[in-house]
Amino acid sequence: MKGFDFDFLKVSVTDVVDIVLVALLIYYVYTLIRNTLAVNLLVGMFIITVFYWVVKALHMELLTTIIEKFMSVGIIALIVIFQQEIRRFLLLIGKNAFLQKNKAWWGYLFGRKEIERNNLARIKPIIDACKSMKKTRTGALIVFVKFYDEQFFANSCEVVDAKISKRLLESIFQKNSPLHDGAVVISENKIKSASCILPLTDNDQLPSQFGLRHRAGIGVSETTDAVAVIISEETGEISYAKQGRVRMNVSFGELEKLLNKDF
């Protein structure tokens, strides 16, 4: 009786490194496209690929030819469709975000309390500004992004690149300020830009009292990994938008917890 040949199971150190690197690459690509429209596009492409295999197996020559023509320009289509994600991926590599993220994890594991104190110190000026603007019913839209895409925001924003402070946020959103229309974008612990024009959501199921400010905050959270804090000019109510969903009437305690988690 012949035994089984397990030679194909032999794994070298190079194979292990290769698998780990591919796994890391897939993970970081996933973190870039997570909660964005790119996920839906990938699902659509997967469905088209499965459909192609089915029609080819059934020898449907016309459909097979049409889908093959469509897939023949797949690489170019991928570049066009995922140009923002590709740009963010290259930006992430250029800024050594991988290493920074790993350092953050080490800090989280061995210095959690210190990181929480530092994070709360960064959040406090934002919370204080929101308290003041809620009291005076000053409309505001503050967007937090993990990766600041200069090309995306530069076309519709005024560059600020300043330290986060309560007075600066209040000044920007004052009705007489030339920058009060639009959103403030915060990234890398700085106010990067102000007066930003953002894409509006296409969701037609939102409450009727939501104006352009709310729709812009929800819209940017649908298409990117950003979160948005919205203060209503009419009621002073604070809303929090993430992944296309909005939490209304957020208390300051809840806002602090949400920002501490996402910012």
TrEMBL record:
GO terms for molecular function: adenylate cyclase activity; ATP binding; diadenylate cyclase activity. Catalyzes the condensation of 2 ATP molecules into cyclic di-AMP (c-di-AMP), a second messenger used to regulate differing processes in different bacteria. Residues 83-252 form the DAC domain. Pfam families: CdaA_N, DAC. Keywords: ATP-binding, Cell membrane, Membrane, Nucleotide-binding, Nucleotidyltransferase, Transferase, Transmembrane, Transmembrane helix. Probably a homodimer. It is an enzyme of class 2 (transferase). Its EC number is 2.7.7.85. GO terms for biological process: cAMP biosynthetic process. Belongs to the adenylate cyclase family. DacA/CdaA subfamily. This is Diadenylate cyclase.
